[in-house]
Amino acid sequence: MGKCCLVTEEIERDLHRSLPEHPAFQNETGIAALRRVLTAYAHRNPKIGYCQSMNILTSVLLLYAKEEEAFWLLVAVCERMLPDYFNHRVIGAQVDQSVFEELIKEHLPELAEHMNDLSALASISLSWFLTLFLSIMPLESAVSVVDCFFYDGIKAIFQLGLAVLEANAQGLCSSKDDGQALMVLSRFLDHIKNEDSPGPPVGSHHAFLSDDQEPDPGTDIADLIRDSYEKFGDQSVEQLEHLRCRHRIRVLQGHEDTTKQNVLRVVIPEVSIPPEDLEELYDLFKREHMMSCYWEQPRPMAPRHDPSRPYAEQYRIDARQFAHLFQLVSPWTCGAHTEILAERTFRLLDDNMDHLIEFKAFVSCLGRTLWVFTAMLCIMEK
What we know:
TBC1 domain family member 8-like isoform X2, Rab-GAP-TBC_dom, Helicase, Ruva Protein, domain 3, EF-hand-dom_pair, mainly alpha, Rab-GAP_TBC_sf, Recoverin, domain 1, two-stranded parallel ribbon, elongated
């Protein structure tokens, strides 16, 4: 109580967006409970802190559980059941979207063939996984999905997603663009009802209706869940985990390639090194960084890799690594004085004195060194 952290402001901003249509969160009592659970989790796990969609899940948990129980359920979801979902890169969710694409090709080949680019469907279904259908389905129906999730894990979300796509396969195949496909799915999901719900329906209000469309009669969530288990329940948890591992490598490699291209785009205009050479230097620099992470004893200093930093500053090396690279790529060596020159150069580049430098500083130094070397050669030739 009374403590603030970096995510406090972000939590405050999302408190009133969680379940605004539900009476429990239209007064300070419900809002205060939600604030306490989210803030407590941010202090428990600073690596995650707070991410959007955690507020929606937590608000639903608070409808059915006491605050401390809701807190530990949130811990289970964020740290065990949906690993790597709740961070700024949502790696876990992207991995599952990649797995979902493969499952679509396997179980719904006609739909996959019609939709040449399944990444469009993946972008639509991302919120299904991030919020367990809570943000795009009426609440009284979505809580049944959450029940299945707590019982069967992510397997339940995969198979329900496939059941939703199968139920709308005809509409999706006749869609002319991604926007129309989104309308088809949103209209279907917004009209999923729960015949067994004791309370009045609370819609998610995401449906898109044109004037010439008749109201959707709706699908009962029990029927949809039964179809998902009967038609797509053959995937075991072990099979899904195997798929996750395989696709995780692909997703991470894609992220690394994107990071590399972004770094080069930032650095190229500022240095006089040809792009192809700069690309090789980046690979050398990153290799040196990775060697320090996995094959050396950790040394107490600032973290070497911080994904929250700008692309060109994410990977960093220390003075010893810089000296190794300096000797490897410098246009000249100074015999016994090479190590001293590298040490002094590193101190000049280490502006904030945290004993680490990033790639941009490294190539800027090398670019200036090459310029001096070239100028000296011209003088010598004259």
